[in-house]
Amino acid sequence: MYNNLGRYALMAVFILAALVCVIYKQYQLAAVSGFLFAFLVWSHFKHSSVLMASKYFKNKEFGKAREMLAEVKKPEQLAKSRRGYYEFMQGELALKDEDYDKAEYHFQVASRYGVGGKTQKAYVVIHLANLALRKKDKERAEAYTKLAKELAETQRSKDIIVKIEREISKL
């Protein structure tokens, strides 16, 4: 759970430790240090700063969350479990900026990845239904609402779906 700068600093420490261990002929310790370095490199590409961004996002520190998400240079390399959260947070931030096309894109990508349980996926689909409703696209709004009904488990999400259905019937 580090940002890029913290990960780079740790990588440098592990490389330095491996070099010192090799100089003192402590090859097992050098191998452990090399393994930890390799783990950090893997973690950098597969998990990046998404966990820290989600922490800031949960605490409603959207500026810091946006900074952490900006550190992810290639989101397509993220692990499936992280990619869903990355896209979901990007969609939410785009909604806050009222960039509805960008939000729809991110929510569509998030719907293809794991975002948690069925409840979280239901909220992603609810967002998509709302965005379709905003564009007055009745067919897509109905399709998303139908899918959201199947996924909805909480009373809150079911209430939101009922409101969306009422708005769809007005189109």
Q: Top keywords for this entry?
A:
single chain, 171 residues, mainly alpha, elongated
How much helix, percentage-wise, in residues? over 70%
Quick check: average pLDDT?
92
Quaternary: single chain
Distance from N terminus to C terminus (CA atoms, Å) equals 46 Å
The percent range for strand residues is: under 5%
In angstroms, what is the radius of gyration? Answer: 21 Å
Q: What overall geometry do the principal axes of the alpha carbons give?
A: elongated
SSE run: HHHHHHHHH
**Total of DSSP H or I helical runs spanning 4+ residues:** 9
Please explain how this structure is put together.
It is a single chain. Helices cover 79% and strands 0% of the residues. It is an all-alpha fold and 171 residues long. 32% of the residues are buried.
